[in-house]
Structure formats: structure tokens, C-alpha cells
Amino acid sequence: MSMWVGYIILIVLIGICAISLWAVWKLMHPARKPVLLTPDEEGLEYESITFRSRDQAVNLKGWFLPAAGSPKMTIIFAHGYRSNRLQNKVAALGLAKALVQRNYNVVMFDFRNCGNSEGRLTTIGLDEQQDILGAVDWCTTFCKGRIGLIGYSMGAAASLLAAAKCEEVSGVIADSPFSDLNRYLLDNLSIWSKLPKYPFSPLMVLAIRFIMKKNPQLVKPIVSIQQIYPRPVMFIHGDQDETIPCADSEMMSQRFADAFSYWKVPGAKHTGSYKLFPVEYTNRVDHFFDRLAGGHR
């Protein structure tokens, strides 16, 4: 009888491990969303661009949107998990249009394994920072002036990681970032996977390390911001965010309060601040980057 109990326990453990691996595989291979809109449909001039990630691993596809007038600086957009350069939940092209009209160059691109870019694996910020750094390299070659980043969710976290490694980035706007990927996954994988937190979440974190062959503990924006300071960062986070708690942005903003700022957006859900308050959002983004570019408003 005890032998059969042992077999049953072994089968259950194998089943739990197999389910964890399968769930993580799906999370790291999300279905690509096609890029169904082009800037000319919004009345914008644009150039299709291709560049390499800084680690030379993949070719990345995107757009360059030139400023309507004399460019103040260039802003690189970094989209979120399971999205593409359009970031439809944010209406990123609408914000890009407003910034172009206020004389900013804009670069929008698809992360690896997203949209039209190469790649077969999404690493929730770890390798995506290399994609942002590749976009920075493209901008330093083809655009004059300062470079700023604006990222959403995973893209916000990746922007903070990239800026920490790149002095060419003058400042970052981080909309709805997590502060520590490993901690975030342990707390929230059950939401993404629809599996019980225990025993699955700890096993899935181990599985992520196995599939990526890299350590998710390296994705710690809360540590990266130490290398960004004293360059400015503006954190934006909705107080109704059920995906990533706004406490993450609040905590990071308080680390260097003399250079970092925080807009806690009432009533906004995950990356929903722009759609809820488009005029104020645009004005705040413009004000932040205008100061970086040498404006005096």
C-alpha cells in the first residue's frame, strides 16, 4: 500500500512540474499581435526602420516619426508584455502624434518576439533592455540631440534597466513598472497563469530560469535606478492598477526624491493613465522632456 502511495505522490509531483513548465513556456512565448495600423493613417510622416539589438541577437522592426518642426530631442517608446509598438491599451500612436506635433522625434519599435521583430522568446525585461539599447544606438547614429525613453509595464522596467547602462539616455518616463521581477513573479504569476499560487508560483520561477537560461533576479529596476541617478525619472502609475501595484513606482520614486517624480493617477488601471487623462498626460510628458531638452517652461 505504501508503495502505491509513493507512486501516486511521484506522479502528482511530476504532473505539477510538467504543468509549471508548460505554463511558463506559454508565458514566455506569447502570441504575436500584428501591427495593423501605420502612422500615415494618423496623418503622420514616418520611415520604417530596422536595427540590431545591442547584443546583436535579433533584428528589430520599427518606425521613425520625425518632429513636425525643429526637433527638441528623440523619444523612444518601449511597449509592454504581449503587445507591440502600437501598445493599443495605451493608444501609444496617439501620444506619439501629440509629441511629434510638439517637435519631438519619436521612435516606436517591436521588442524581440513581438510584432514584426525577430526572436522566439520574451524575457520580461532581461533581454528586452538590449533591444532598447539597440534603439538608442540607432538614434545616436541617425538623430542629433538628446534621447529620452518612455516605457510601459515590462517596457518601463526594461527602460530603467537600459538607462542604467547607457549615459546617452537623458531621462526616463516609466509608466506602471515593477520594481523587482523575481518578487513580482512570486507574488503575481498565479494571476497570469490562472494556477494556484502554491505550489505553482515558486516552481514556475525556477522554470523561467531554466527556459531563459538566465537569472530573472537580474531584472531589478529598484537596483538599476541607482545607476540612473542623478538623471531624472518620472514614474506614472494608476492607483487602481491590479496588475502591478502602484506601490512599486512610489517606492522607487522615493529613493531619489530630488531627481525622481511620481504621478499617482486616480482611477487609472494598468497603463491606463493616458486614455483616462490624455491632455494632462501629454502635458506632463512634454514638460518632462522639454526640460531635458533645455526648455524653460
UniProtKB/TrEMBL annotation:
Segments crossing the lipid bilayer: 6-25
Source superkingdom: Bacteria
- Record keyword Transmembrane helix present: yes
What are the record keywords, sorted? Membrane, Transmembrane, Transmembrane helix
Tell me which residues make up the Xaa-Pro dipeptidyl-peptidase-like domain.
65-193
What's the protein called, per UniProt?
A: Esterase
Q: Which organism is it from?
A: Paenibacillus konkukensis
